[in-house]
Amino acid sequence: MNSIHKTALLTWAVVYPLITALLVLLEPLVAELAMPLRTLILTAIMVPIMSYLAMPFATRLASTWLGSSTETQSVNGDTR
After folding, report:
1. pLDDT at 21 over 90
2. With helix as H, strand as E and coil as C, how does 9-78 read?
3. pTM of the model
4. What is the pLDDT of residues 41-53, one digit of tens each?
5. How far is Cα 60 from Cα 35, in angstroms, rounded to an integer?
6. CA angle 46-16-4, nearest 5°?
7. So what's the pLDDT on residue 73?
8. What contacts 24+ positions apart, CB below 8 Å, involve 12-15?
9. Is the dihedral of CA 76, 49, 39, 16 positive or negative?
10. Contacting residues for 76 by C-beta, under 8 A, at least 6 apart
11. How far apart are CA 78 and CA 17, in angstroms?
């Protein structure tokens, strides 16, 4: 499998449970808000978690599977 496809699959594997958890946790707090505002709140929480915590952790965990290509290094921020 091409590295870009593996990266996409890994991203989906992290995004799906994170979105599910955030929807469950936020639902009682945002249920009465309009959909665009709920989406804004969800993404304002999710994007930093994905960028700074979840994806760096997941790419380190899956680094062997992803391979040591330049694409993998740029995704996890490791330039060594």
Report:
1. yes
2. HHHHHHHHHHHHHHHHHHHHHHCCCCHHHHHHHHHHHHHHHHHHHHHHHHHHHCHHHHCCCHHHHHHHCC
3. 0.74
4. 999 999 999 999 9
5. 34
6. 95
7. 52
8. 13/58, 14/50, 14/54, 14/55, 14/58, 15/46, 15/50
9. positive
10. 55, 56, 59, 60, 63
11. 25
- The Cα–Cα gap between 38 and 72 comes to 32
Q: Which two tokens stand for residue 32?
A: 């009465």
Tokens 């999710």, located at residue = 46
Q: What angle do CA 44, 29, 10 make, to 5 degrees?
A: 40
Structural tokens at position 18:
């994170």
